Amino acid sequence: MDIFITILQILDSTLRLATPLLLACLAGLFSERAGIFDIGLEGKMLAAAFMSAAIAFVTGSAWIGLAAGIGASLVFSLIHGLASITFRGNQLISGVALNMLALGLTVLIAQGWFSQAGRTPTLIGDARFTSLTLPFAETLSVIPILGPIYKELISGHSILVYIAFLMVPVTWWVLYRTRFGLRLRAVGENPAAVDTAGISVIWLRYAAVMICGVLCGIAGTYLSTSIQAGFTDNMTANRGYIALAALIFAKWRPWYALGACLLFGFFFAIDNRFQNISLYAWLAIALLILIAALLFFAARKSRLDMFVLGTLGTISAAIAILIWTTNGLAGSVVIPGQLMQSLPYVLTVVILAGFVGKATPPKAGGEPYIKER
Amino acid sequence: MSLMKKMLGAAATLALSTGAMLAEPAIIFDLGGKFDKSFNEAAFGGATRWAEETGNTFREIELQSEAQREQALRRFAEGGSNPIVMTGFAFADALTEVADDYPDTSFVLIDMVVDKPNVRSVVFNEHEGSYLVGMMAAKASESGTVGFIGGMDIPLIRKFACGYVQGVKAANPDAKVIQNMTGTTPAAWNDPVKGSELTKAQISQGADVVYAAAGGTGVGVLQTAADENILSIGVDSNQNHLHPGKVLTSMVKRVDNAVYAAFTEGPGLEKGFQVMGLNNDGVGYAVDDNNATLVTADMTAAVEEAKAKIVSGEITVHDYMSDNSCPVN
């Protein structure tokens, strides 16, 4: 039963950690499906995190904060749209510039406004999105297995978490079941064809970029007014870039994006829970051999993969032998914290290189559309 | 002749004003920022106290990036500031480079040792202060499990952790301590979201008192502890006021006293190695209106007794940095 509770708690933490990634990932999905690459997810989240916390503090309402956060993110989106759609600039450069702008501007404004080292004051009461207890969470908790799952895992999150997970089917429906979605996808693959059909490429791309802004705004707001109670300097801590990695991993598809973000969230949750995990030597060896075997399996796919994964596999096999010879089979091994911390990133490399196969971005991605004359 | 007089007069005025400039001390705040509610804020408090009491002014800068360390040091030294105080271990490399170039300037480095003739290195016995708050944590805990969340995984933070664990075990030998470090890069000082998640992970493992020695990340730790209705322990500055009734105590490092002393002694301050410990009130635990109800008489008695024994040498708290290992965990 203890193990069951532990697993539940880790999954619970996974949901919390995956939420900002998922929102940012879906944001990127809309934008990139329409052919606008967006490195600036991080910057938009950061701007939204600051603005929502600041306005929520001033007004005392988390919902007004959310609106302000989305507003700030939309302003950044518009700048990105203006630079890359209207003026046909380089989308990557515009995105990077926006990230830098957000990093500096948030702290500068926060310092001028609140004079607390680039922070906002701590939010209290209604200025925060507190966790919701779903109906019957207490009464149902007596039911074995399902009760605790409902109470611990599904209930007790902030409303923004539910919005984030609801966005996955919504995104799928919009992209694959509506006329707008069809056109949006088309504009990322072949904008000339869309133009020929008499539909405005510019307008569609702006719409995609604005949707991206709204979703990033919710993601940023979640960070500063839900899990935290205020904005701190650079609080997104590269989550925007991880969301981009998840997007590629998910091959620009909404349900895959959910899976990718949950996987990343799960890795981070494991890292937080078991920083200094101590295993029996035989277990450690078994795991390492499993990793090595997987790597070699993956290695058969292509030459470059074989090189990267083969090296990783050899290293893990070597570590396995080293553990065996030094500790014997009965002793326990303490896996160092650094290894656990690097695990999400190592696994990302492995998965991206080995298991995703060929990730094909939208064909017209990154290319500004120029109408033929 | 009159022109000559005027020029001489101007030169004299200039010399005088430069002389006044020379006496002006300077302080450089580390990346955490002047109002980090922690280490740097304590340093700023000491400098402000000196300025208010003497009516003098001081120069200051908040660093924004690693590259500015040496630049800021040289700017102040060339501008005639003396002494120059730096808050934070990360200045050691920059100061080692710069100190020899300005032999007449006195430098004060807090939290790290640089062995140069014009440098005063102030270090704190954080392990002693952490020992005391560890005892309080063990006594306040009902579950017998307490937590520690460090910032960046460096020996200095391990020193906090090691002293804390020793204190916990001294008060309750059966107690369990869960230890986490936020990360291995300087970003670990500024990730309150991860601080929150680590706190939740520790709570789910049974911890009901959590000690945060993690700079800005600690803001998230204290916040989550208050949200989840458990106790937390602040660090460096007195952080009891952040969540009244939820912060058990704070392990205070009197960085303000170190800065105040340096500014008061002026350019001719004594160089070398200075240790601030329990014996000279360099470290301690904070009790004020915000946590008075949490600290029981039994706790105070035990902690005061331990403090007296540490000062007299009857109890020795092991210093992690002396041999890079901790006897208990």
UniProtKB/TrEMBL annotation, chain A:
Subcellular localization: Cell membrane
InterPro entries, alphabetized: ABC_transp_permease
Iron-sulfur found in the keyword field: no
Membrane topology, as annotated: Multi-pass membrane protein
Swiss-Prot/TrEMBL keywords: Cell membrane, Membrane, Transmembrane, Transmembrane helix
Chain segments annotated as transmembrane: 47-80, 92-114, 129-147, 159-176, 196-220, 241-267, 279-299, 306-326, 338-356
Main location: membrane
Transmembrane as UniProt keyword: yes
Domain of life (superkingdom): Bacteria
PANTHER family: GUANOSINE ABC TRANSPORTER PERMEASE PROTEIN NUPQ, SUGAR ABC TRANSPORTER INTEGRAL MEMBRANE PROTEIN-RELATED
Name of the featured protein: ABC transporter permease
Automatic annotation (TrEMBL), chain B:
Keywords: Cell membrane, Lipoprotein, Membrane, Signal
Location(s), subcellular: Cell membrane
Segments forming domain ABC transporter substrate-binding protein PnrA-like: 29-318
Signal sequence coordinates: 1-22
Membrane topology: Lipid-anchor
Stated family: Belongs to the BMP lipoprotein family.
Full protein name: BMP family ABC transporter substrate-binding protein
Source organism of this protein record: Parasulfitobacter algicola
Lineage: Bacteria, Pseudomonadati, Pseudomonadota, Alphaproteobacteria, Rhodobacterales
